[in-house]
Design a protein that fits this description.
two-stranded antiparallel ribbon, three-stranded antiparallel sheet
Length: 68
């Protein structure tokens, strides 16, 4: 994240992925922190049987070093 023109690296976090109907496909999965970036790999097998449609949502919950 960029905060005040400086990179503020998250210390930990989770990610959730929801389909158009709001059903959790991934719920609070732990992210990895690589080079000051939060990352999560969504495997193709997780969504292979699901419809590709507008309205999916991804929510990141990240803890930053300054606690915000």
């Amino acid at each position: 994240m960029i905060r005040g023109c400086a990179l503020s690296a998250p210390t930990s976090g989770t990610v959730s992925v929801y389909d158009r109907a709001g059903t959790a496909i991934v719920s609070a999965a732990v992210v990895t922190i690589v080079s000051s970036e939060a990352r999560y790999t969504l495997l193709a097998a997780t969504t292979a049987s699901l419809a590709r449609e507008v309205g999916w949502r991804i929510e990141w919950t990240l803890l930053l070093a300054d606690g915000i």
